[in-house]
Amino acid sequence: MKLFAKTAVFIATLLCTTVPKLQAQSANFHVVPLPKVVRSTQAGDFTLNARTLICYPQGNKQLKQQATMLANYIKQATGLQLSTTTLAAQRNCIKLSSVLRHTNPEAYTIRVNSDMVFVDGASAAGCFYGVQTLRKALPTGVAQQVLIPATEVNDWPRFSYRGAHLDVARHFVTADSVRRFIDILALHNINSFHWHLTDDQGWRIEIKKYPLLTKIGARRAQTVIGHNSGQYDGTPYGGYYTQKDIKDIVRYAAERHITIIPEIDMPGHMQAALAAYPELGCTGGPYQVWQQWGVTDSVLCVGNDKTLHFIDDVLNEVVALFPSEYIHIGGDECPKTMWKRCPKCQARIAAEHLQADGRHTAEERLQSFLIRHAEQHLNQLGRQMIGWDETLEGGLAPNATVMSWRGEGGGIEAARLKHKVIMTPNTYLYFDYYQSADKAHEPEAIGGYLPLQHVYSYEPVPRSLAPDEQQYIIGAQANLWTEYVKTFKQVEYMELPRLAALSEVQWCDAGQKDYGQFVTRLQRLIDTYRLQGYNFAKVIYNVGVTLATDTTNHCIRATLSTIDNAPIHYTLDGTTPTAASPRYAEPLRITAPCQLRAAAFRPWGATHEVQRTFNFNKATACPITLLQQPHPKQVYGGATLLVDGLTAGDTNYASGRWIGFCGNDLEAVIDLGSVMPISRASINTCVEKGYWLFDARRFEVSASADGHTFTPLAAEDYPALTEQSPNQINTHTLQFATTAARYVKVKVVSEHTIPAWHPGHGNPGFVFVDEIAVF
Prior knowledge:
alpha/beta; eight-stranded parallel beta barrel; seven-stranded mixed beta sheet; 38 strands; globular; disordered N terminus
């Protein structure tokens, strides 16, 4: 007994000396999205502990659910198990209500004193957002108590529509994963879930009147490997949601004050439906569920009355499942090829007097006829229509709301026509784009480059709109298309933490946003990501590299940064950076060929290093003037991108390394600074035929001593691409007799008419060009 007692005392002493006492941690209401007002008061701090109660009004089912959710959030974050009650406790209580008087129904306040935490919403939704703010204010980590400082929070959203889109047609995710997605949206104060349920590659919603839609249309025989490589995996792929699944998911979302907006895309993106019911197509088939990506010519036959009945029947069942005010009918990317030679479609054009009117073709007006038919049917069912900005083609349906994805032009046009608009431009809000320029350490994506900071910089209300037109911009939405997103784990990766940036775009006033402060606040939200096991992109911890071409001093200035000011070490000789390498302190001045490699070093280790390889030539960092302007959506870094010493390493045309021209040509003059001998010039072009990116058709170089009179030095023509031409980077070089020149003019002729074998035939193609080198 004495030995046992001595042993027990020893163990107790050891535990006391090796395990730190759990200290009270503090809450912080500077969360993401940032509330409108966070004000410290003198009302006394509140201590959250295991005896704290969560109180809600008796008989209020919604607030009862929120009380239970809050208790679960607190347990997950701190380990404290709180009880919920309808008793009117006066001390040590978090009290929920929905009686706040405010013009915005989603507004809320949080008031903290030494006895109580009051979370008051202008509605149950407002209270829910207050609960989310309180949840995110709490620290994560097991605690016996948490100090909540005396604070008053007053908050409400800027936009009434705050959306996130998920495509489950290309790659299916389970019902459980959809619910997890909804939880992620709730964490970010997003109130609308745009669910893309049908497309060429799969029909994912049960329609009882048309059982073949899921029996045949929900399953494709195989899937293309990579970016339409022509090779297939040979593995059948499918999945769909039963109507019971959908009802359960709709209910789950409603409990989190999220409205699900279903999309049944029409009249294009319908090949899966045509595989099931071929009589709805212009040719009668046979069709198969599409096995590749992109846009197919197989679309609904608008001249067929069965098509109109099909649309009505499908929408009837969709409306019965989804209580949302809006139903999305797509309307995007619908080739008119089949309609032009379909007797039924041409007969419909004649019968409805849909002739071309100078602005729209007859076939575009035929699409508008179908969109209007769908809208009228939805209106009869008490619902409103949303469509992509292509629904403007042929004339917009009378009551339609427009989602503007091809930049902001469609949204601006719709707002000026007094239609509601949701901004979702691909250049800012397409989350299927890469999060990092370092593709080697990124999962495969469709292309593009959309870092966190670029998402955060988006302003949904265009300055070009007059004040009375701006009111029609009701919100913003990010889209995730899943051609290359095969698992829900990757869905999480593509969404996070970009959804955090989106949440501030949607919630905060424009003048309230500050990226530097945002990334500081983001750290606590990431703690919640870790707590929930979310697969967020760690690239936010990598070194950020900002390059500026100094054409005055003929150098490249490299500014390095991290979101948390972690130490950065770098090398310029191509060796791997270590903690012993030079530490970054100020912008680097690059004046000669080198390889910059940098990494951030934290207590838990080093990040993936970033690399930039600079290749200098006589044109590098020289003044450059464009004589023809790039396509407005493909400007990226502008003219100096062509002389910044960096060469694009892949065909990711939206990576920021390329500049694009369409309908005109690249024509630029480079000032070498002084007269010097030159004998060779080269350019790189990016070929991605599926995205209408073609090779140069001609390359010309001329030179001048005074910048006014230019003498041609060399030129070369290139053949039009064929269907078999590979997607790749092409380098074109012109050599000529050594010439003394100060000014060099380069002209790269684009593909002005896309060849007949291509779906975009007859239209101008893009030419994307990178580094101009002169030797």
